[in-house]
Design brief:
The structure holds 2 protein chains of 2 kinds.
Chain A: E1 2-9, H1 12-28, E2 36-42, E3 51-56, H2 64-75, E4 82-84, E5 87-92, H3 96-106, E6 111-116, E7 119-125, H4 128-134, E8 144-150, E9 165-168, E10 171-179, H5 182-191, H6 201-214, H7 219-229, E11 232-239, E12 243-248, E13 257-260, E14 264-268, H8 272-275, E15 284-286, E16 293-297, H9 298-301
Antiparallel strand pairs in A: 1-8, 1-14, 2-7, 2-8, 3-5, 3-6, 4-5, 9-10, 10-11, 11-12, 12-16, 13-14, 13-15
Chain B: E1 3-11, H1 17-26, E2 31-38, E3 55-59, E4 74-78, E5 93-96, E6 112-115, E7 128-134, E8 148-153, E9 169-172, E10 183-186, H2 190-203, E11 213-217
Parallel strand pairs in B: 1-2, 2-3, 3-4, 4-5, 5-6, 6-7, 7-8, 8-9
Antiparallel strand pairs in B: 9-11, 10-11
The chains are: A alpha+beta, B mainly beta.
């Protein structure tokens, strides 16, 4: 069992409160996943030519300022780090590939959580309730976000094994369920040149979508391909720079509820995570059909 | 045993589900018989395990296992219901104005479950005598291993309807995506026409009984002996 939450803002007023509401949703999903928690937020896009990195350090006393200075020295410019608990977001005036390659070469002890123009990922082992407070989620504004609470079933409980997983620029995935063909698929994806950091099954799904999209497929077509190639049971929520998509396996092993109000669009493993949103009692609520792909993005809302 | 006619209102944003259920269980031996539950907030196990002819109205959406194991009580949900609505219902009735998620009425032994909207996958899985009436559609694998009782679907049915069915009667007004193993279409005789009309009337669902088709067991998958028919 795991818990998933997705929240998309339809108004700028709601954007300012998005972190606060995502925090409430995660707390409702804490019973479904007490082992670890994580969020992806899409916010404050960096200018063209810049890349936003989210990095995790196992060292509580990490000198993020020094790292930012080193990045600035190498690439010409880097913003001051925005630190949240064990994570920091640093914007660098560089392409994503070269910035990530520099971090991996020079600071192999750090873990790259995400890279892109607007994505930020925070995740940590331990209680979702502690996570919400420690990472100051309530003050975060964002256009949309995904959250996950994990009850581990097939790989270790560590920060790295927590969700969301990001394998490509501005894309991430959260998963409730488990995949049975992930070992073979991981080998295929590694041969194709994808970086997979853990032995976790959900990370393979994330890398798979990145691979399909790098071959030119849109998110919807990549998810259609996933129905054929991923064996197991799942509810996925996939975040992109523009919105998020939801897919349940064709048998419908894992739950999901969706809802839409004038201010927001939400998905969650259970309705109780939606019930805490403002205006939930008047919002339209429905259950996504198994094997069907649901996409919300800025284009669809506008 | 004293009973009261006044309406007892419980607000689940103030009171725990455990406390509500305890009070409903206590009402079996006297106390208020009519209850209204407000702000259910998708919480689980609301009004589960009732064992008295109580009347419970729930204003809003409920979570998992609402009205599970219901005996004698009438529970109305003015909203949607999560997984396992009225699971293992024994008697009484459970009515949902909106949709119900997976496994509605699962393993139910008796009573009536009415879902005015759609029911999701596995509706009536392993039902053992409960009657289920769905105003809209049902999802995949509904009435899987269904043993007894009737499932009435006024909309469409998803794939593998009635897979591995025993003796439940299934009535569908719309299309059936596919029938499961050992489930076949059957004629509607006098008995079945009466059963269908009776269930539609009892559930207050407006549908013409003449528009339905009936599905049931081919009796090739399990050891059916006509001499034991009275036991089913």
């Amino acid at each position: 069992m795991c818990g998933i939450a997705g929240l998309f803002s339809k108004t700028s007023d709601f954007e300012a409160e998005l972190g606060d509401h995502m925090a409430d949703m995660l707390i409702q999903m804490a019973d479904r996943g007490p082992d670890s928690a994580g969020v992806a937020f899409y916010r404050n896009p960096v200018p063209e030519g810049w890349t936003k990195l989210t990095l995790f350090s196992p060292d509580d006393d990490e000198d993020w300022g020094a790292l930012s200075d080193s990045l600035a020295a190498r690439f010409g410019a880097a913003a001051d780090p925005e630190v949240r608990a064990t994570h920091a977001v640093i914007a660098v005036e560089a392409g994503a590939d070269e910035a990530a390659a520099w971090v991996i070469a020079n600071r192999p002890d750090l873990r790259l959580m995400s890279a892109g123009r607007s994505i930020e990922i925070y995740k940590e082992k331990g209680s979702p309730l502690d996570f919400v407070e420690r990472f100051g989620l309530r003050e975060i504004s964002a256009s949309h976000g995904l959250g996950h609470t994990r009850m581990a079933t097939e790989s270790f409980v560590t920060t790295e094994h927590s969700h969301p997983f990001s394998s490509g620029l501005d894309i991430c995935l959260v998963h409730n369920g488990s995949l049975s063909n992930h070992n073979r698929l991981r080998e295929v994806l590694r041969r194709e040149g994808l970086t997979i950091q853990t032995d976790n099954d959900s990370e393979v799904a994330s890398a798979y979508l990145t691979w399909k999209m790098s071959e030119g497929l849109g998110l919807e077509d990549a998810l259609k391909a996933a129905i054929e190639d991923l064996d197991g049971f799942y509810t996925f929520a996939v975040g992109t720079a523009d919105g998020f998509a939801v897919l349940r396996d064709p048998i419908g092993c894992k739950p999901a509820v969706m809802s839409e109000s004038e201010d927001w669009v939400a998905m969650a493993s259970e309705y109780r995570a939606i019930a805490v949103l403002p205006g939930a009692e008047e919002a339209r609520v429905w259950e996504p059909s198994p094997g069907q792909i649901y996409v919300w993005d800025k284009a669809a809302i506008a | 045993m004293s009973t009261e006619t006044a309406l007892e209102v419980v607000d689940l944003s103030q009171t725990s589900v455990r406390e509500l259920n305890q009070r409903l269980h206590d009402a079996a031996s006297g106390g208020p018989q009519a209850w209204q539950v407000v702000h259910p907030g998708g919480l689980h196990s609301i009004a589960a395990g009732l064992d008295a002819p109580l009347d419970v109205d729930i204003d809003g959406h409920v979570g998992y296992y609402c009205a599970g194991m219901n005996k004698e009580a009438t529970v109305r949900i003015h909203g949607n219901a999560g997984v396992g609505l009225a699971e293992n219902i024994m008697s009484g009735s459970v009515v949902v104005d909106g949709d119900a998620s997976q496994s509605a009425g699962a393993t139910g032994h008796g009573g009536l479950v009415v879902i005015r909207g759609n029911a999701s996958t596995r509706c009536g899985i392993s039902m053992k005598g409960v009657n289920i009436v769905v105003g809209g559609d049902v999802g995949n694998l509904s009435a899987f291993m269904a043993q007894k009782g009737a499932l009435v679907v006024c909309g469409d049915a998803g794939e593998a309807l009635g897979d591995s069915i025993y003796e439940t009667h299934i009535y569908v007004r719309g299309s059936v995506a596919s029938l499961g193993a050992d489930c076949i279409e059957k004629e509607i005789g006098e008995f079945h026409a009466g059963e269908l009309s009776g269930l539609l009337e009892e559930s207050g669902v407006d549908a013409d009984p003449g528009e339905f088709r009936r599905y049931g067991t081919a009796r090739r998958l399990y050891n059916f002996d006509i001499d034991n028919a009275g036991d089913y």
